[in-house]
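Notes to self, Lytic polysaccharide monooxygenase:
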Amino acid sequence: MNKPESKPQLKHGRVISPPSRSAIATDEGLILDWQANEMEGGKNFPSLTAGPFPRPYETDNVSLVPPADDYILSGGKTDARDCVNFTNEEMSQKLNRPFTWPLLNVDPGQTFHVKWVYTMPHVTRGYSWFITKDGWDPEKRISRAQLEPKSFYDDFYTQVPYYQHAAELKAKIEHEVKLPTGKHGHHVIVLLWVVADTGNAFYQAFDVNFK
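result:
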């Protein structure tokens, strides 16, 4: 009989550069690496409902229920991973000391480069980028009302159906996006790695300061 695993195996993936909220939470000892790799929830975001992925990708596996408001940054997870949804005040209470999410200094319109590590590289549809609205409230958790209603960039493979192109639809270890212009001060960026052969995406969040 095989010895039972003492903890889940590392799987899926996370951004390792620049530091995401999940990386910071890992450094703070609030979550483990495997949990940072599983910020996983339904991929039809910002929809609230499960169902087919939008055209022309409706032959991809149907989406599970996307994350609820206030739990978006953890992919809907409400266990220890909920900490990535915390406001500065909630984190300060959790850590019993003053805390603010570190800000990455960026310029409006600059290229934002990310690097991932994958421990289970799924057949990938692509990557979708969201950002908070002007005037969003950092003293509240991230909800759909706090985010711009549409992604500011989608980086999707166009081959369909995915099961005829699985070898081509590879997760990208490194990729980049041009950040929006006209933003100022603190914003939160939400990056989704959208998977073609499951109903989920993997959610990563970054706190940035537009100079």
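- Confidence is low (pLDDT under 50) at residues 1-10.
- The chain has one domain: 13-210.
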